Every structure is written in structure tokens, then in C-alpha cells.
Amino acid sequence: MFVAGAAFWVIAHNHLYFIISDPLQNSREVVHVNITTLAEDAGAHDPYNDRSCLLYPGEHPRIDRVSCVYYQGAQIASVSHLTHKLSNREIRLDDEASPQMLAKLRKGALLSEHIIPIAADLLIEQNLV
To answer: pLDDT, tens digit, for every residue of 104-113?
Structure first.
């Protein structure tokens, strides 16, 4: 359920998240990032419009416009915490990222000037970037 590439919506603010670390390697610290619509007029260093990983319609069933990853807002949670939120209906699952999209999300994390250090460290520790 909560594997690398898993997607879920946080109901409270209706944002789509993807797990980019490998929960099989570390289920206590799972890195997940959310997707946001790209504001074409935003500055090059705007963390809300990080161009390190642009996503296009067709790359995932829920991506219907040019979007980006908010790497500065990367979050760390345990699989048990995510499972608890799912059972409480605070999150709902969606279609997983394809292997190509997951690789793109991870590559963007390494390229981003905004990724939080702990998230980058976990991805590097797991040899994912």
C-alpha cells in the first residue's frame, strides 16, 4: 500500500502527494512530496514553483496541467502514521506513479535547491539519487 511511488490525497487541503523514498528500506522515515500547479510567471527561485521537476498532463491520471513538486514542503512520516491517517480517512489513496515518473520525482529532488536536507539525506542513504 505505502510503497515507493504510492500516491495519496491529504483530504484537509486536497493536495496530491507521492512517496519518493523506499519504505521497504526504512518504514519509519518515508519521504513524500506534494504536487502543485506551476505558476508560469513565478520567479526562477520561488520554492512554490520549483522547476526541478515539471510534470505534464498524461504523466499521471491526476496531472491535468503543467505542475511542479514543492520540494521545500517535503514531509517525513512513518508507514504506521500514514496507515493511521488512511484508516481515519484523513488521506485517500490514488494511482501510483509509474517507474519513469518516480525516477523523475527523485531526480528533481536531487536537483532542487529547495529540498529539505533530511529528505535529500534519506534518498541518498537509500541510493535512490
So the answer is: 999 999 999 9
